[in-house]
Amino acid sequence: MSYRYVLVSLLLSVSFCVHAKLEPAQVEAYPKNSAEVTLLSDGQRLPAIYYGAQGKGPHPTIILLHGYPGNEKNLDVAQGMRDAGWNVIFFHYRGAWGAEGDFSFTGSEQDVTAVTKFFQQPKNAEKFKINPNKISYIGHSMGGHMAVAGLFDNPEVACGVVYDGANIGVTFKSDDEKVKNMWAAYADSLFMLRGWSGEVATRELAKRGEQLDLTTRAHEIGIRPILFIPADSDVIPIAEINALANAMRQVKGNNVNYRLIKDDHSFNNNRSKLLKVTEAFLNSNCR
Hints:
The chain is of the alpha/beta class. Helix content is 36%, strand content 21%.
């Protein structure tokens, strides 16, 4: 599959908040900013927003990956990490929330690569003050799967953080009929995912379930830093998260990190803690 990456719109809005680590001249000349960006993945348009860090740059950059279907967007994390000197890019996968095309799990994996490659292009990295060697992924739930798959598909990406992450080939592909029917019924309810249904989901999992099991590719993490933050909720079984983390730990010289924040699936009672743990890990390992 080939990818085209086109910047369609750039609407800047500036904020004059001062970053304590920057000289006043840099604050005035290079304030925090944001931009609406339209990207292409396999010829179809994805809406994105770029949160630009304060200062001249280039800055380390996070690609923030939402879950299934993406009601929780973690934009508080985006704002917090921008305050810490990171650029953050948030986008919707094909078929999700108005993005063109039809939604699929494998298509979403491909979208992560399309977005990554766009911002790695020298002209785009320069425009958006991005250090292309210091890109990291943060993903929540299904986005956690996308973060790990993105690391496997893009070995030049530096780091990953996984918030209560799914492993689609395990989480959604169950031999338990009750669980299988529950996920199919949920897929039927997701009207914001174009072309998606329980039948479509079941068909994709039957065809690509093994490919979507991240444990089969765990060795591809290499020695890159990754942080798993499970919630131990009823949504993603912690045993599945542990199985993937432990598979990665079999790699010699691995840098697999793990921090349990016991809460519901969206960490509703620990948002400040979630940001603090994320910031400490990324600043120590990935910038």
